[in-house]
Amino acid sequence: MNMIFEKKLTIPMEVKMMYPLDEASGKYVEDGRRQIERIFTSEDDRLILIIGPCSADRDDSVLDYIGRLRGVQEKVKEKILIVPRIYTNKPRTTGDGYKGMLHQPNPEQKPDVFKGIVATRELHMRAIKETGFVCADEILYPENHRYFDDILGYVAVGARSVEDQQHRLTASGIEIPVGMKNPTSGDMSVMLNSITAAQHKHTFIYRGWEVHSQGNPLAHAIVRGFMRKGGQAQPNYHFESLKDLADAYLASGLANPSIIVDTNHSNSRKNPFEQPRIAKEVLQSRSYDSDLRKMVKGFMIESYIEDGRQNIGCGVYGKSITDACLGWEKSERLIYDIAEML
Questions:
Q1: pLDDT tens-digit readout, 68-112
Q2: Do the Cβ atoms of 116 and 105 come closer than 8 Å?
Q3: 3: in domain
Q4: Which residue segment(s) compose the domain that 302 sits in?
């Protein structure tokens, strides 16, 4: 086998004992999870905004950003529920490049996965304790979810992972909402199949155990655009695309049919400044159709303190080192504009 086994990682239970969630933070998590769940079960008709940096590269600027969201949340709380993104696992199209805090807690130093697990756990717990927000992350590696399953409010399965059996089965054993993105091919049937798998019970191998999942009725769709043959980005947030998905979703008989629109990635052709326009168009589409009004629950938005992106090592505080993001002033304005349109 052409691999070097460097060290055996501490198991999740031991990491949780080393870095426990305090009682007050646990109550924030319980309350935050309940609020998020109520949106996907249609008990709460507020819009959900899963918003934040493309990748959580450093804790100081991420916590600064989330702290700013706290003040905005209080002003829009009757219409919008904000769930900050703390994305610490980054899939790479070619497999090369910075893979996120979980791999490299310091992007300018060599990978150290255990330090990354600790840094990720501590960052999420600080966000809970200091701002009261329970946050979102991506499941890039299904077996790692157990390190963080007591501190997350929302998780997503990415476009490159949604066809993977282990991601689908793991999602079926998670107790919080799991967003399943459409694959990069754009095939909506693949995404709906993934949601179906996640909503059913399964027996499978997980972390060396035979486990039995109970199914996750809160698994749902995230549309993020797709790539045509030849590499051209194609959006799927327009009215006709959303209506086709809604019709297929309702015909499937899946529980809690819900759609989140990712306003960046292929929907924006990775131009983050298109995100306000896309969000506003989707809100108009919701107003035209009762099914979309019920099923389009909110948006996933890539946003940070500074506009755009930078290369690793440039050192601009609050600027993405992965995909380009919408800066704070534009993001704040967008949140208020969304609230006014609801």
A1: 999 999 999 999 999 999 999 876 666 567 888 898 888 888 889
A2: yes
A3: no
A4: 12-341
- 137-140: long-range contacts, CB 8 A cutoff, minimum separation 24: 137/85, 137/86, 137/87, 137/88, 137/89, 138/87, 138/89, 138/90, 138/91, 139/89, 139/167, 139/170, 139/171, 139/178, 140/89, 140/90, 140/91, 140/99, 140/100, 140/102
Buried residues in 254-277 as b, exposed as e (16+ CB within 10 A): bbbbbbbbbbbbbbbebebebbbe
Whether 147 contacts 125, CB under 8 Å? no
Of 296, 306, 297, nearest to 327 by C-alpha is 306
Please tell me the pTM assigned to this model. Answer: 0.96
The residues, ordered by sequence, that sit 6+ positions from 109 with a Cβ below 8 Å of its Cβ are none
Per residue in 291-342, pLDDT (tens digit) is 999 999 999 999 999 999 999 889 999 999 999 999 999 999 999 999 999 9
Distances (CA, A) of 113 to 94, 101, 221, 320: 20, 9, 30, 21
Residue type, 21: L
Assigned domain for 299 exists: yes
The total number of structural domains in the chain stands at: 1
**Helix residue ranges, H only, the chain:** 12-18, 23-40, 59-76, 113-131, 165-171, 188-199, 239-252, 275-288, 290-295, 328-341
Classify residue 182 by its DSSP letter.
Answer: P
**Which DSSP letter does residue 144 get?**
G
CATH code: domain of residue 214:
3.20.20.70
